[in-house]
Amino acid sequence: MDLIKNSVLLVDDEPQVLIALEDLLSDEFTVFKAQSPQAALEVVEQQPGIAVVLTDQRMPGMTGDELLTRVHEASNATRMLVTGFADLGAVIRAVNEGRIFAYVTKPWNPDELQIMVRKAAEHYRLAQELVQERTLLHDLMDNVPDGIYFKDRQLRYLRTNRAFARNVSGSQSEKLVGKRLVDLLGPVTDALNAEAEDRRVMSEGLPAQDVLHEFQQNGVTRWISETKAPIRTPTGETIGLVGIARDVTERVQTEAALRRAEEQLLQSQKMEAIGQLAGGVAHDFNNVLSVILGYGEILLEELPKDDPKHGDISVMVGAAQRAAALTRQLLAFSRRRMVQPDIVDLNTIVWGVDKMLRRIIGEDIDLRTMLASSPATVRADPSQIEQIILNLTVNARDAMPKGGTIQIETATVELDERYASQHVGVTAGTYVLLRATDNGTGMDAATQKRVFEPFFTTKEVGRGTGLGLSTVYGIVQQCRGHIVLVSELGRGTTFSIYLPEAEEPAAEPRVRRPQTRPPAGSGTVLVVEDDDEVRQVTVRMLRDQGYKVIDTGKPENARSLALENRAGVDVLLVDIVMPKTSGPQLAEELAEIVPGLRVLYMSGYAGALVDREIKLSSSSDYIEKPFVPSTLAKKIADLLSG
Questions:
Q1: pTM exceeds cut of 0.85
Q2: Which pLDDT band, with edges at 50, 70 and 90, does 626 fall under?
Q3: What is the set of domains in the chain, with CATH numbers?
């Protein structure tokens, strides 16, 4: 039988016995000898790989079993005792109690002694392999990044690795032994749910894979994915549970951020589609309103104020003007309206509308303002910022029928790359925050998803058009900003608007001069408009003001008219969007025919300027439909006066 050559320590106070034992065992084992227990302990200390210690029982100063007890404390060697019949009972008890592996009685049989030492060496080898396997298993458990744990039937931890102990309690594995999860986290819902899952696995005898649990630890939310299975005896009895826990917080957060980004993208695409539709509707409707308002204003000019029809027409014109205001809100939502941006300070604008807001909201609502200590400058049309503040305040007022508090605040904030990655269309940088908060009724999730859609409203019929928040949305988008809504039923609403900070100082407020009646016109205007009714009322307005007018509904006819009247045409009044040829293209062609030709563009929506990349030298080069005679006359007069 081939055996691994192991080392044996022989201990006896009689040299002849040591020599006899050495002769018997040296062919198979490396033999060390010691004539006293003290010498034996020194050998054990110097030779840690000794497999078997064979010692006499009766020796001066220390008995054999006492020596083997000392050896057990210092070595994993298999312990054997040589004894006489006098104390055989004590030796047998030592074997039964596991203090020694076997014993040999004097006088011994050489063959039997060799067999017993071989068995002791094999016992040592198997024990060492078991220790190595356990050490390897423990090292493997403690070095994997996932948490591993074993529980008994009472859900108490029997063994955990370092990763699990660190993630669950921040302590060492030994401190978890004998404890339950609820002992570590408290009887919170997260821990109770996890233990309920443990009981189900043990009762059903089926493993559970990728069970996701949310835990709150030191105020931080963490997500743990667990795979667990029952531990069974050979007879099939379930005696515990083994589990692997993986911290998937980063994955869950990333997936949540991706879902938010997808939702924001879908919402943005939906709002863009609605905006294009709204812009197209507003464009066509403005053509209709141009005719109604134009002829209405003409009739008011021609009829005496005491004429009974004058009042009827005034009502008609007023209704048309209100309709025009609605289309302007639609155009603001669709970002298709002409604006005149300036560098403005939001603090100044909030202070400027403070008194008006207080009159609107009533005495049962407390209006509070918290403004930035330094100028909060942005590039925007000041009238549009006022409209944002007004719309948000009115909405907040309507959400508090029994009174409450509205808080308007401004601040300068930094939005980092992480924030930008979580919000579609946002770039990192410095922004000015305009925030409006109320403690009113709040909104549910379904309402929040539709709140910026035009004509969507939760108010009863007659109390709102559903264009207030859609207008706010469009203005914010036009200013290259973004808006965040946070609301909860019964707990109020907060609108946070982020606009890019302007580095330049705020401009001086515009002085609104009173409108004066423009002087009677002189000159020739070439009108090119494909809508017959709009063209006819426009021609009527200009002729009533004293201008000579040449008109056509076809761009190709405009070229021949320009050639015929090249010396007399002063202004080209042209619609931007027309079939076959656009207004800007026609203007370029006619400028070659009529040197010095002045151009006034008109359109039902300013998006045509953006879509066709038209760069105006000033706002005087554009008039928005619908317009009235006095506005058109003023624009033409300004162009002719240079």
A1: no
A2: confident
A3: 7-140 (3.40.50.2300), 144-247 (3.30.450.20), 256-333 (1.10.287), 342-500 (3.30.565.10), 524-641 (3.40.50.2300)
